[in-house]
Amino acid sequence: MSEKIKVLMVDDEAKFRETTSKILRKRGLDTTMAATGEEAIEILKKEPMDVVVLDIRMPGMDGHEALAEIKEIRSDTQVIMLTGHGGVESAKASLEKGAFDYLSKPCDIDLLVSKINDAHRAIHDTEAWATEKKAGEVMIRVEEYTTIQGDQSVKEAIEHLMQSFEGLIASGSVMETGHRSILVFDRDGDIEGILSIQDLIGAVRPAYLSAPKPSMADAMQYSAMFWTGLFTSQVKKLAGVTVSDIMSATPPSVDENANLMELADIMYSRNARRVVVTNAKGRVIGVVREQELFFEMAKIILK
User: Fold this and answer.
1) Cα–Cα dist 35/58, whole Å
2) What pTM was computed for the model?
3) Which of 23, 31, 133, 221 is packed most tightly, with the most Cβ within 10 A?
4) Can you tell me the distance from the alpha carbon of 144 to that of 300, in angstroms, rounded to the nearest whole number?
């Protein structure tokens, strides 16, 4: 039988601390409680813990101070920070100081247990957790991606996309499928949206094809005479259309330090084939496509 995960629950709210600890024990975790950062440090000096669940706002030694002390005396102990309303930025800052992760209070108990298990695995599988890349490490930099301004024409957009394909063919790059989309920016350099090949295909279709039709029109629509030459004529009309008139909304975004599971979750839950990556100032610095995540999956499985 495997040993229980040893958890230290640190929170100055007695009811929250005791209730959460009781539930964690029922979930099979060996849980100890502490009401202050100072008390937590004294416990850790006497007994090692696998995971510390640490509230940020506490009287006396706050969570950030306690985190620094914990890492000083027990560097291999993983710390999950707890933050109240409005404290997310403070919790994010703790990640740079060695915290494993953070959760907002009140937190879902299943999520907390899952994070504790993840933190425990990180102790024993240090290679995987230490070497896993961040969004900023797998993205295509915006300078290398196809971009255009919203007031330019579809003809210019297609020229830009063709250049991306030709460049990849000439270089023999692994991204042999090209970018298949263009990031659209305004004149101030702020992102406006994205123009994909699917947007272009949708824009080629005459609007009346999507409008309600009488039964006779339905029969005409599928005749050879109806379709002949329609694609060519519509594409020619599309050439002069402004990109901003047919582009899609900006894809979801993540910070450059987001981990790959966060990227995977966003792509799946929001049915997004690409995600834009931003820096600390909120500026778009790159794009992660589904291909990049696939390549990372392949590396892990096939290495």
Assistant:
1) 9
2) 0.56
3) 31
4) 25
